[in-house]
Design brief:
heterodimer, A: 259 residues, mainly alpha, B: 317 residues, Rossmann fold, Alpha-Beta Plaits, six-stranded mixed beta sheet, four-stranded antiparallel beta sheet, elongated
């Protein structure tokens, strides 16, 4: 039975649904675990320590750390989910089915990256809901917040996809989220305003690209940020574009896929 | 020959390490046939399948399937091609039904429970439709892979070593299923280590070695052209050398001198070898050489394959 030479929407949808179901199959690892970890952050830093802290930029400390903690989970989970999603078929050999099917880069990205981004958004919603039990907060620009979270989720899902293609071992798969993303997010103003850092440390902190993401999300929440929202947006869109270009290159050359 | 449904021209694949896995392969596949691709390990069988199915990027050459160039109109062509890989590669935590339904969706077809049920029943998997694939036996897992490959109703099906690691009973069952698929009009290309499998199943046979197709022909034609007769004559008393009186016959003496080995006869005339062996036995008697037994048989496809590969390897050594 022939399929036209056009975009294979059913193929993309099949990958998307399957990836989401995979997450449901591993709900404890994919959803409960990060929510539990983030809740502990809210309890320790938001409720216990936060009660003794001064407001930052006019925002209560417990509320101040929400965007940073959200970003911490979002970056880690979208990257891990997406990288794992494409690495596992490569590792187990089931990638043959994807490569031999009439699906191209668009269908593959919509399926894998779309599912990883969706999981990220679901997590973000759960974390924000959980936060209401521990701290009082209001989102100043809710639409902008949703839009920015979607942008970051999509960008890091793409990044995770590249990681999953690049990695040739489980160790490599875990290196980037554990050794780079998590520390950089911690140091990217999750728990403090970068402008409060003394002297040269403030300058060094701005070399950390994650600081711009945390700052951008914080702006959508409270209208205050370390850097201009436009700078954060520009950087995020730039990162997204680079990821798309790299993935297009991977599919064009078959690097690590069709070798 | 009618227009082939798959036409491969000048296909070459050189891997990044410099290994030439395919070397200028030319191959046409006819509609509805079962084509067996024979070759030793590393001959290029899986690379050839991979190149057609999109798993391997060819270095050069063209492939046209169902009139569509696989490099340009790959979506159209791939939608009509199915692949059963050599390895048991599937999501072991997925249920049988969902795994097959996923394959159907991946190829762009609407969900069709009735069709999937039909496929699973034909492969005796319906009772296991809700089982996770990891719970199944090796033979069942392989049938799941076949079901997945059939989910989008391909016109051309590649089976890469379909019976590797499968016991004799299951292998026979698999042959029946392949035969049934062929009867329904699916063109089948299979690679196999079991020459018996090719001999039994295939309409045409291709022999590949070191990335080159050595020959492609109808199975019957190969047997006719390259077949021979072998007779092992067990002697009552050992000999030191082949007697001068037997020099007209293509015979050799075994290492222990206890047997004379005849290899001859022409595939053009299936009985010519037998006639010559009968003549040889008379010559033995005339020469006063007594024998106690004769084991005579025509060469199998396996003999032809082994001879051909050995000759080529000796030629390139």
């Amino acid at each position: 039975m022939a399929l036209g030479g056009t975009f294979n929407a059913r193929g993309a949808w099949s990958i998307y649904v399957r990836e989401l179901m995979r997450a449901m199959r591993t709900a404890f690892q994919s959803i409960l675990s990060p929510v539990l970890t983030t809740s502990l952050y809210f309890v320790v830093f938001g409720t216990v320590i936060g009660a003794r802290m001064e407001p930052v930029d006019g925002v209560a400390y417990g509320a101040f750390i929400i965007p940073g903690l959200l970003m911490l989970t979002l970056l880690g989970e979208t990257t891990s989910n997406s990288s794992f999603g494409i690495y596992m078929p490569r590792f187990t050999g089931t990638i043959y089915e994807l490569l031999s099917a009439p699906v191209g880069v668009a269908e593959t990205l919509i399926g894998f990256v779309g599912a990883a981004a969706t999981k990220g958004l679901i997590l973000a919603a759960i974390i924000l809901g959980t936060a209401t039990f521990f701290v009082d907060y209001e989102i100043k620009y809710p639409l902008a917040a949703v839009g920015y979270i979607m942008l970051v989720a999509a960008s890091f899902s793409l990044f995770g996809f590249i990681l999953g293609i690049w990695a040739d071992s489980f160790e490599k798969l875990g290196i980037i989220p554990l050794l780079f993303l998590t520390p950089l997010t911690f140091l990217g103003g999750t728990f403090y305003s970068i402008d409060d850092l003394p002297g040269v440390w403030s300058t060094i902190a701005y070399a950390n690209p994650i600081a711009f993401l945390v700052s951008g999300l914080r702006w959508t929440f409270y209208g205050t940020s370390d850097v201009s929202i436009w700078t954060s947006l520009g950087l995020t869109f730039g990162f997204l574009a680079v990821c798309v270009a790299v993935i297009a290159f991977i599919f064009k050359t078959g690097w690590r896929l069709r070798e | 020959m009618p227009d082939p449904i798959l036409s491969i021209k000048g296909l070459t694949k050189v891997y990044s390490g410099g290994v030439k896995a395919l070397d200028n392969v030319e191959l046409d596949i006819r509609k509805g046939e079962i084509f067996a691709l024979l070759g030793p390990n590393g001959a290029g069988k899986t690379t050839l399948i991979g190149a057609v199915c999109g798993l391997v990027r060819p270095t050069s050459g063209t492939m046209v399937a169902f009139g569509s160039d696989l490099a340009r109109d790959w979506r159209t062509a791939r939608a009509r091609i199915g692949l059963v890989p050599q390895e048991l590669s599937t999501d072991m935590f997925e249920t049988v039904f969902r795994a097959v339904a996923y394959s159907r969706g991946l190829f762009g077809l609407a969900p069709d429970k009735a069709r999937i049920e039909e496929i699973l029943r034909s492969l005796s998997l319906w009772e296991k439709k809700d089982s996770q694939i990891r719970e199944l036996s090796g033979g069942m897992k392989r049938r799941v892979l076949i079901a997945k490959a059939l989910a989008h109703e391909p016109d051309l099906l590649f089976l890469d070593e379909p019976t590797a690691g499968v016991d004799v009973e299951l292998r026979k069952g698999m042959w029946q299923q392949i035969g049934a698929l062929s009867e329904r009009g699916t063109t089948i290309i299979l690679t196999t280590h079991y020459i018996e499998e090719a001999e039994l199943m295939a309409d045409r046979v291709g022999i590949i070695l070191k990335g080159q197709i050595l020959m492609v022909d109808d199975k019957a034609s190969i047997m006719k052209q390259m077949g021979s007769t072998e007779a092992i004559i067990s002697l009552a008393q050992s000999l030191q050398a082949v007697p001068e009186s037997l020099s007209a016959y293509p015979v050799t003496l075994s290492e222990d001198g206890c047997s004379l080995i005849y290899r001859g006869g022409s595939g053009d005339d299936a009985s010519s070898g037998n006639v010559e062996v009968a003549s040889l036995t008379k010559a033995l008697i005339a020469a006063g050489i007594d024998y106690v037994g004769i084991d005579i048989h025509d060469s199998s496809l396996e003999d032809i394959f082994v001879d051909l590969v050995s000759e080529r390897e000796e030629g390139t050594a």
